[in-house]
């Protein structure tokens, strides 16, 4: 039997990765309610938005307000995505706990999505690290490697290129690195193989797995990653979102389905699953007409499910 982590963190990214991918613009007060309810349900890591120009992503224009609110919640790790130095400077100013810089291992996807080559993103991370250190900030820098298993534009992405980018990000000063299956090409075998190699390079600095459920394999891919010892995964409530370069694709693994699977495996997440399902119902009402995903909300918790006796503080 494989040895799984005893505790796993589910980082909620629905407020960023989910909302940026749909046309609906959720009012700030609703987002604050989402953060508050997720926190009350036991979630302790939330990516609240992204510091990008409002004209590009009006859905995320209120990120600074959301960081300010989220920072009032004790023990909540507040993260944001930033595409460049300017966004990173805003993240540092707001005292976000972590900023994530996306790098696409697919050269063609990188140019389409960020208008930079992977190596230009690495150079930007070095500038961000210098700015962070000069500011005396404690904000952590995470380099997130996307399209790590293939790309709808380029096709094949070599493992060696993913691992080269990972080492380059670490050399440039990233505190953490993560791997994302941006367009849902991964399967468990490929995940296990790549994550094992990544762990050998980055050790405990390999921070997170990010799996889209495009072809229904997100939870299977999490299981394979768990076998390698990775103990943090991105997920979106109700599987909200998608990818502009993978038309028709669902978003990440749904937070509630992932929490249920982990609980069933005896892995502690600190999450009150009925409370998370109640939040899902609320968000579904706010996003009426949008495509939502996940299975647990349809079937409900089984009668044999025993909730943890006590949640993490």
From TrEMBL:
Molecular function GO terms recorded: acyltransferase activity, acyl groups converted into alkyl on transfer; hydroxymethylglutaryl-CoA lyase activity; metal ion binding
Signal peptide: none
InterPro entries in alphabetical order: AIPM/Hcit_synth_CS, Aldolase_TIM, HMGL, PYR_CT
One Pfam match: HMGL-like
Coiled coil location: none
A single BP term in Gene Ontology: ketone body biosynthetic process
Superkingdom of this protein's organism: Bacteria
NCBIfam families, per the entry: PRK05692.1 (NF004283)
Protein's recorded name: Hydroxymethylglutaryl-CoA lyase
Species in which this protein is naturally found: Paraburkholderia panacisoli
Lineage: Bacteria, Pseudomonadati, Pseudomonadota, Betaproteobacteria, Burkholderiales
């Amino acid at each position: 039997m494989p040895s799984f982590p005893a505790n796993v963190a589910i980082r909620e990214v629905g407020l960023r990765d989910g909302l940026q991918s749909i046309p609906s613009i959720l009012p700030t007060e609703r987002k604050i309610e989402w953060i508050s309810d997720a926190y009350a349900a036991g979630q302790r890591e939330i990516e609240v938005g992204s510091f990008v120009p409002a004209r590009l992503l009006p859905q995320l224009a209120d990120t600074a307000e959301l960081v300010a609110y989220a920072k009032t919640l004790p023990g909540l790790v507040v993260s944001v995505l930033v595409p460049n130095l300017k966004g990173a400077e805003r993240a540092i100013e707001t005292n976000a706990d972590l900023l994530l810089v996306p790098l696409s291992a697919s050269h063609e996807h990188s140019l389409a999505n960020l208008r930079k080559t992977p190596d230009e993103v690495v150079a930007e991370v070095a500038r961000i690290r210098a700015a962070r250190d000069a500011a005396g900030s404690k904000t952590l820098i995470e380099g997130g490697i996307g399209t790590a298993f293939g790309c709808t534009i380029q096709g094949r992405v070599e493992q060696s290129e993913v691992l080269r980018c990972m080492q380059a990000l670490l050399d440039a000063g990233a505190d953490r690195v993560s791997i994302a299956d941006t367009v849902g090409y991964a399967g468990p075998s490929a995940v296990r193989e790549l994550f094992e190699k990544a762990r050998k390079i980055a050790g405990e600095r390999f921070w997170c797995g990010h799996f889209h459920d495009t072809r229904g394999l997100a939870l299977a891919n999490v299981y394979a990653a768990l076998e390698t010892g990775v103990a943090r995964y991105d997920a979106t409530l109700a599987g909200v979102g998608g990818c502009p370069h993978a038309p028709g694709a669902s978003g990440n693994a749904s937070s509630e389905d992932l929490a249920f699977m982990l609980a069933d495996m005896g892995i502690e997440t600190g999450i009150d699953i009925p409370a998370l399902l109640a939040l899902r119902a609320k968000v579904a009402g706010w996003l009426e007409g949008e495509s939502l995903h996940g299975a647990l909300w349809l079937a409900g918790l089984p009668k044999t499910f025993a909730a943890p006796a006590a949640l993490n503080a």
